[in-house]
User: Fold these one by one.
Assistant:
Number 1:
Amino acid sequence: MLGKLLKYEIKATSRTFLPLFGVLLLFTLINKLFFIINPSHFSLPQGISMTVYVVTLVGIIVVTLLITIQRFYKNLLGDEGYLMFTLPVRPWQLIVSKLTVSGMWNIASTAVAILSVLVMVLGSADLYAFPRVWTEMMQDMRLAMGMSPALFFFELALLILGGLAMGIMVIYLSIALGHQLNSKKLLGSFGAFLLTTTVIQSVTTFVVWLLSKLLSGHGFGEWLNSLSFAAGTQLGMWTGIVYEIIITAACFALTNWLLKKRLNLE
């Protein structure tokens, strides 16, 4: 059933994202063609085309955030929620489907935006030189960091994905908390978001302070200073990944409990 939920969610959201991606790539090519044909002359059509390009690029970022909020808020806790919660699925499956597809579109939007910018700024000479430059950069990273660049990028990808999942789950939890109110639920969700982020930051600060106090007398600081750059980098990245997993899991569990035990669709 989770597969059907994912398929439905992708189908519903692709109606918004795919046309946006198409418009962005179209005006990317149009502007690139303008620059190739006459790079020294800025015409009115070129100005209009560039304006549409910039607006679309910014619009994709804004729409991605809005769709992340709207699909959870309207589809689960709005009028559509009466239908969604009559399906033979558990609340956690609904959350997973929203989280997965929202994360997918966030990644896709970022990738399309980066690709668009690269097409705009890179020339044919840059593309020919890219393999050589990339190889040299990887060699320099290996020498400077003392670790495999592939391992570094793998851990960085995990860190980014964890941060994305954590951010989305904080939004979902805030919406679920705001819907505990009988009125002004949107305002309540915004207030819950501020409260949730404040609590997370406060708890994180307290835990870091407590750990530093507990470990300060056991040579922990000396051990950290003795670490190599590669070991210190990996320790920091995996600490961040574990932190993101804990916060995401906590937000997921609380959101699931609210949808299961304290669902309010009125």
Note: The chain has a mean pLDDT of 85.
Number 2:
Amino acid sequence: MNAVAPRRDLVLLVADKSIAQATAGLLQRTHALGMRRIDYAIRVHQQRDPGCRVDAAAFLRPFASRFEHALVLFDRDGCGSRAPRREIEEGVESELRRNGWGDRARVVVIDPELEAWVWTPSRGLASELGWDGRFAALREWLSENGHWPTEAAKPPNPKRAMEAAMQARRRPKSASTFRRLAEVLRFQECSDDAFQKLKAVLAEWFGDPLPGGPNLPGVGMGNES
């Protein structure tokens, strides 16, 4: 009789390659996230943000017996709903509960979009955007060009600000940009509610009470068999 294969730790359903790359980068920084290393897989929904919002339960149903937990991440902008972030999250989580996941799945809606997570006062951010690590110069340029009001904690349109800053330095933007940022930015400086939820969920599920204990290698975005 064949033995039943153990469940893997986590399957992530994300809206695009940028979120996939950012998540893969974050999951390498287990100590900063307060979690052990995990065995995970990432899937990108072909219908992007709207697909994650309306189809997550159906998409992830076949994975419920193969993974301990599921996490869905997508942007509020472009998802097809104008409801508050938490209301969207609760609606998708409710569907997941009814489709085989019970309390083993969570949803993180990034408001307005992924770029909101990168705007922290960081030399690493300034370097990745092409500003030679000079965050003060980057901040001043964005303010002078109407992308970041002096009194605001973050640019009102984080995506437009990021693209403008990179274009000014003729720096190409790609999905891998978000992985590199996820690998260097300080988590303590990101107060975004959606990011804080992501951290809390990962720590709840995979928190390692024994620092320095045995860890599993993280598994990236290979196809499922």
Note: The radius of gyration is 18 Å.
